[in-house]
Design a protein that fits this description.
The chain is mostly helical. About 70% of the residues lie in helices and about 0% in strands. Helix 7 (about 130-140) packs antiparallel against helix 8 (about 145-160) and helix 9 runs antiparallel to helix 10. It is elongated, with a radius of gyration of 33 Å. About 30% of the residues are buried.
């Protein structure tokens, strides 16, 4: 019995060299396999890869084509080569490459979906949007559905087909990304179009849908205020514009003059002016000084308008304020200094033209004009509502 216990103790020790030898042999076999496969990879593949690192796509395409010819066709390499052609703007070659790959009997299942997706991108790049849309719609029930719908969403936004954009965004929505922010903007686009056509009821429906999707959508209340103003419902317009303060006060600059006009239409011009002055004092980042000065000039005269503007500018000195301040103080200057002050104002004015504008907070695109949809990165409501020094 004691001998058996000793043997059970000795067996693992005796077999240890055997296990070690087996592991060493397996590692050697794996290394030989790796080296064997490495030797079979054509040199042109590495040359093509090196060219891609150097951003020499022309050389990469040439060498990758040679590799594919040597390999007598390869799914992965052919797919990549087609993408390279598209990146270089050679859409005809990209389409031809991916169509040939699609006709291969080996391209089935997920492989076929991947090729169709790339072919759709080729058509989109070539401007054949209808063909691209048809392909992406075909992919909606497969593994590439999410990617296909993302491209479709971009297509519908570019085509301003807001109903399809809303439907597609709803398909893409999930717990982490609901697309409610974008959907609200799509409804606002539809409301704006209805407003231009004076379809008041339809415009209101779209506004309500926008606010249901995103209750903090400032643009919806801007358009609602415009609708009420055009229909003569001035108090309702004031309520809509004023609601922006709680949504995002930075956008009050964009409705300042319209808000004043609504008060003026009710015979309450001074109340409207005081509201704007209150906004500017409460939120110094707003750009309301010019509107306040112009309205004060009409209501209260030059002296009072000057005093109000100077007070606001001193509370928040910036290039725009300095330009306005020099203009206001010019008449009181000694003639000897007036020419110099005028020269300084001209310099500041030129700097304003170059350095003060709206900027996208996502991609830093700069513009003199405000865009709800950034032309550079295609994000919504990312431009600063007030012009800033950039």
């Amino acid at each position: 019995m004691e001998n058996m216990e000793i043997w059970w103790f000795l067996v693992p020790i005796i077999l240890l060299p055997v296990f070690f030898a087996m592991g060493w042999f397996a590692a050697r076999v794996d290394m030989k396999t790796v080296l064997k496969h490495a030797k079979t990879v054509p040199t042109g593949f590495y040359v093509s890869l090196d060219a891609l690192v150097d951003k020499n796509t022309g050389k990469a395409v040439h060498n990758l084509t040679e590799v594919i010819d040597q390999q007598q066709g390869s799914y992965d390499l052919s797919l990549t080569l087609g993408k390279l052609y598209r990146q270089r703007g050679e859409n005809d070659k990209a389409i031809s490459m991916h169509r040939a790959l699609l006709d291969s009997p080996d391209t089935v299942g997920e492989k076929r979906e991947r090729v169709l997706y790339e072919l759709g991108l080729n058509y989109q790049s070539a401007g054949l949007v209808d063909r691209a849309e048809q392909i992406f719609l075909e992919l909606q029930n497969g593994n590439m559905a999410k990617q296909a719908n993302e491209v479709l969403l971009n297509i519908y936004q570019q085509d301003r087909d807001w109903e399809k954009a809303i439907a597609t965004a709803q398909l893409l929505a999930h717990d982490e990304l609901t697309y409610q922010f974008e959907i609200a903007q799509f409804y606002c686009e539809m409301a704006q179009e209805s407003l231009f056509r004076s379809d008041w009821d339809i415009a209101r429906q779209h506004i309500q849908a926008a606010l249901s999707a995103n209750k903090k959508c400032t643009r919806a209340n801007m358009i609602l205020g415009d609708i009420e103003q055009k229909q003569g419902n001035f108090q309702a317009a004031i309520d809509a514009y004023s609601a922006i303060e709680k949504q995002n006060y930075a956008y009050l600059s964009m409705v300042g003059e319209r808000l004043y006009d609504a008060y003026d239409a009710l015979g309450k011009a001074e109340d409207g002016l005081n509201v704007l002055i209150g906004y500017e004092k409460t939120f110094p980042t707003l750009d309301l000084v010019n509107v306040i000065y112009d309205k004060s000039l009409m209501l209260l005269g030059e002296e009072k308008a000057n005093a109000t503007a100077i007070e606001l500018i001193r509370a928040k000195p910036d290039l725009n304020g300095m330009y306005r301040l020099l203009g206001l103080q010019m008449s009181d200057l000694n003639p000897q200094w007036k020419a110099d002050a005028d020269m300084m104002r001209g310099v500041i004015g030129r700097q304003l033209q170059k350095a003060v504008m709206h900027r996208c907070q996502n991609c830093h695109f700069k513009s003199k004009v405000y865009f709800w949809h950034c032309p550079a990165c295609n994000k919504w409501e990312t431009l600063t509502p007030n012009k800033i020094e950039v």
